[in-house]
């Protein structure tokens, strides 16, 4: 939610991973899945890594935040569920109120932190109409109350919405002494 106090917060982290989708019959991206599991582990442990430091600067996050993982691809959802169920206990999943699903499953749901992982690589040329359909893309990218991680492989040249998301949302970190002077993203 855009309020004066939140205008200067960094609430988006772009994380590009190496690796590709598996195949035409299984459209999951194991590198994306691994990174998502690592982020969730870090959130549960309240680690102060470079990838999580902006998250912990948000005042509203005083304890462990709720976490949702959104992906367009059903194979990616299955791979994420399998990895999370193997890695995290039931108590850990409850602690963060973990939800993993498609944009359609997230309709009407929000979490403090959303990890958006589309399961892409530079060869995904035919999925653009499905992944970048405006209402589906809007739901996928607007479910976070406080912070969004965008974990993805190399974005194909034809996926303009995803490229625009990175360009629009990524902003340089503002030094504390300038925080009161400039809106987020201005230098």
Plain-language structure description:
- There is one protein chain.
- The chain is an alpha/beta fold and 187 residues long.
- Helices cover 35% and strands 14% of the residues.
- It has eight helices and five strands.
- It has helices spanning 30-45, 53-56, 74-87, 90-95, 103-106, 128-131, 134-141, 160-169, and strands at residues 12-16, 67-70, 99-101, 111-116, 144-152.
- Strands 1-5-4-2-3 form a five-stranded parallel β-sheet.
- The longest helix has 16 residues, at 30-45.
- The protein is globular, with a radius of gyration of 16 Å.
- The two termini are 22 Å apart.
- 31% of the residues are buried.
- The model has no long low-confidence stretch (mean pLDDT 82).
Describe the structure in brief.
The chain is an alpha/beta fold and 187 residues long. Helix content is 35%, strand content 14%. The chain has eight helices and five strands.
Architecture blueprint of SSEs:
Layout: E1 12-16, H1 30-45, H2 53-56, E2 67-70, H3 74-87, H4 90-95, E3 99-101, H5 103-106, E4 111-116, H6 128-131, H7 134-141, E5 144-152, H8 160-169
Parallel strand pairs: 1-5, 2-3, 2-4, 4-5
Distance between the termini: 22 Å
Count every beta strand, where a strand is a DSSP E run of 2 or more residues.
Answer: 5
The largest pleated sheet is described as: 5 strands, parallel
Extract low-pLDDT stretches: none
The secondary-structure class comes to alpha/beta
Largest beta sheet: strand ordering: 1-5-4-2-3
Bin the helical content: 25-40%
